[in-house]
Amino acid sequence: MAIDYITKWPTTFAIPDQSATYSSSTSLRHQDRVASATLLLLLWLPGEAVVAEMAEQQQSCSRWDQSEGVDDRGISQDGDVVIGGLFVVHNQPPTPDLSFTRNPGQKPCFSFQQGPYRWAHAMVFAVEEINKNPYLLPGVRLGYQILDSCTRYPWSLRAAMSLISGGNHSCKSTGPVRVIIGDASSTQTIMLSRTLSPLQVPLISYQASCACLSNRREFPNVFRTIPSDVYQARTMADLAEYYGWTWVGAVVVNNDYGLLAVQAFRERAQGTGICLAFFETLNRETLAQDVDRAATTVQMSSARVVLVFAWYTDVEALLLELARRNVTGRQFLASEAWSTSSYLLNNPALRNIGNGVLGVAIRSAPIPGLEAHLRQLRPSRHPRDALLRDLWREEFGCNPDSGSSSDSSSLPSCSGTESLEGVQNTFTDTTHLRVTYNAYIAVYAAAHAFHSLLSCSPIENTDMNRGQQCSSDYNISPAKLLQHLSQVNFTTQLGENFLFHGGDIPAVYDLVNWQEAPNGVLKYITIGRVEGSQLHLEDSAIWWATGSQVPGSVCSESCPPGTRKANRKGEPICCFDCLPCADGEISNTTDSLTCEGCPLEFWSNNRKNMCVPLTVEFLSFNDTMGITLTTVAVSGAVMTAAVAIVFLYNRHTPIVKANNSELSFMLLMSLKLCFLCSLLFIGQPTDWSCRIQQAAFGISFVLCISCILVKTIVVLAVFRSARPGSDSMMKWFGPGQQRGSVLLFTCVQVVICAAWLSLRPPLPHRNIGHKIILECTVGSVAGFATLLGYIGVLAAICFLLAFFARKLPDNFNEAKFITFSMLIFCAVWIAFVPAYVSSPGKYAIAVEIFAILASSFGLLLCIFAPKCFIILLRPEKNTKKFLMGKAQTHQ
């Protein structure tokens, strides 16, 4: 027997200060020291049990676990196989007494909780059902020993040691329990596991949801009928991602339950852009100070969504403090520990602050017959159930007559036969059984493991198997029991398949929402379900803390398309600035990290959220500028034609015949070509238009300047020949020589253009920038410069000759007008060069056209306007006498 080995351990050793507070902030080394000391205590106790058995014949017995603090606060029933249970029926423990001496005066735990007491009776009810079931453990009577763990691990350890040593509230032993259903707290379950794992005592917890308990190497004896916290933490992260909450605060209890849940939340939130705005912890021992600090943080933070992982009593203190400060508009995400707490829902002070709470809840399931079992309970029928007496004191305000002199209360006495029928309280409420169902199904899991271990007959509803029984040898090996527990696989009364994955069960949760009922009381309604990682939500049924609209909680508003995120230095990743994309770059998604460049021939639109084809720009006949220049060019050509008609009609008059009328008509023809060649620059550039436009421009202007130059030379020759004693120069520069000169000057330009177009001609080009500018490249810059330079040389020579001939005597000295025309021509083309170079796109073409038209009009008006004025308005002056009169006078 294990007792023989255990009694060899020393009976004196130092016990750590069990009144000290342990939380998740306590290091694992501290927990291990506590667990080790507790294990020594555990090993010592069975030896004490042997001593008790040896003194069995005495009239009285002395056991350390007989005090009112532990075993007298439980429920028990003998059986062939006994199952232990630990439930936090009382919320406030007294100062612990671990002296291991009889202390009848020790005060019991206080602050009775009806919910956990219902959980305990769910275990009782499950055992009664199993004992009545002829197909499950036939011939084996299950017993139970249920104790109050008082919310703290010293009492939990003390109760667990009492269970495995076989003690109860009497001096008789019920035998050690084979499996313990409990405890509720993750920290207590961790302590129990480390203490009991050397003895391989299985624990099946109904509420210990710490993710750490999934580690089978550290906790091989722990099974759970509640999903791991990692799943509800992930669910909360999924909810935050679903609703776009990227700035979330957290207030958690400072133990494994809270800290590991936040860790799981952070792991799930990685890569989703969700950040923790703040992280506050609550300790039960310093709750007032911690609540004040956490409330200040919540109040000052810009986060509007707050994750709360804590026990409902701690949450009550936090919510009351926030309500006192009139903090509103905070959306709380509740963990399963308080999301369905009727204690909080029935508190009228939390009506405003609690309205809209969104929580993850343990799935609810019905237990047929449980309500009838609860309502038939009476202290008169269960005189040794001290916990039932506590319920009676709280519900009926009286002290039931238990027949025990140890009961002392200032409350009036009552018979204990009062009925719970018609009583509506937390204990009798079976509408939403969550933890209650977990405790209930844990008993069935243990029963099925016993059934398999004891080689019972198959569980089938057939008459063939009725009456078959399990083996009468109840010497159950803990190691084998652990093995059979891990292999449990059965169908529940609801038709669901139950099995353990390691020590856990698949994650199934309800999603609940706190809403104000018409009577002004808060209630929770189920608004969704979680199965694994799948969220099933009914958004329309949710009432938020801010009303009907989903609240927002972000550090920085999402960056719209057309911008990119730029993280702020030294701040979390969800705090950022939105920078607009540069020209030619876009972002077409929300919260884009980068802007992408547009492909060739595309450009960003004004919002920088889409690449659009670039606008193709060229000087078109359809736009305003093209229409204007076309109109001016055509007008110039028409005016030139009109002048030509006037000259042709008056070709025999002196003013037309003077200075070689043939040159005048050639000049008018070249001017008309100058006006018309400007039209070649308008329209979409093509290969032929690019080649011909510059050549036509160069040849037309050279023809024009050549005519003017020859006319200037003719003027000089005529007046030089008119001097006394001078030979006539006109015989050397007659009409033939004049035409030849014009042809020669023009042919030089033709050769230049031919060479240019042959070697590197102008070609159409798509200049891609903010727009696609269709333009003609110059091709050879030297060719273009030569073309313009030749025109400039001719114009300069013509200007100089005309300038020297401007004072020659004559009533109508044409050299004066040629001088003015050349002055305008040179000024225009000198201004053209910088304007052309600095003008973008089609405006450069417009500048060139303007220079062509301006210089053409200058030549037309300066040379032909005075002659037309005389021909049309002063015909009396259109005589040879008038023209030569001044010359004759000087003679």
From TrEMBL:
One MF term in the entry's GO annotations: G protein-coupled receptor activity
Keywords: Cell membrane, G-protein coupled receptor, Glycoprotein, Membrane, Receptor, Signal, Transducer, Transmembrane, Transmembrane helix
GO terms for cellular component: plasma membrane
Xref: CDD domains: 7tmC_V2R_pheromone
Pfam families named among the record's database cross-references: 7tm_3, ANF_receptor, NCD3G
Segments forming domain G-protein coupled receptors family 3 profile: 625-887
TM segment ranges: 625-649, 661-683, 695-719, 740-759, 779-805, 817-837, 849-873
InterPro entries: ANF_lig-bd_rcpt, GPCR_3, GPCR_3_9-Cys_dom, GPCR_3_9-Cys_sf, GPCR_3_C, GPCR_3_Ca_sens_rcpt-rel, GPCR_3_CS, GPCR_3_vmron_rcpt_2
Compartments, record wording: Cell membrane
Topology of this chain in the membrane: Multi-pass membrane protein
Family per similarity comment: Belongs to the G-protein coupled receptor 3 family.
Protein's UniProt name: Extracellular calcium-sensing receptor-like
Lineage, broadest ranks: Eukaryota, Metazoa, Chordata, Craniata, Vertebrata
The encoding gene: LOC105904801
